[in-house]
Amino acid sequence: MRGAIWLVLIVCVVVLAYLIFKKNLGISWLTVFGAHMALAAIALYVINYSGWITQVYIPINPVTMGTVTILGLPGIALLLGLKMILFGQAI
């Protein structure tokens, strides 16, 4: 099982490196990704601690950060909706 996980990791890294160098993306995409991740963390922090929505707490972890980084504000709405539906919390 560990061998399969390492194989998948190595293949993913090789394919990612190939795509980065083939499209000549350079390092600029890391800056954009880092800025998006920082803004996602700030948005989650504001939602959790501002008092706008008092009954809902969205933990700041890699899954929620990734969701908000990729989807933006609709990602926050998705997480709030999932939290309300799965845990029966009303806003």
Automatic annotation (TrEMBL):
Q: Does the keyword Transmembrane apply?
A: yes
Q: What is this protein called?
A: Inhibitor of the pro-sigma K processing machinery
One Pfam family from the record: BofA
Q: Does the keyword Transmembrane helix apply?
A: yes
Membrane-spanning segments: 27-47, 68-88
Keywords recorded for this protein, A-Z: Membrane, Transmembrane, Transmembrane helix
Please name the InterPro entries in this protein's record. Answer: BofA
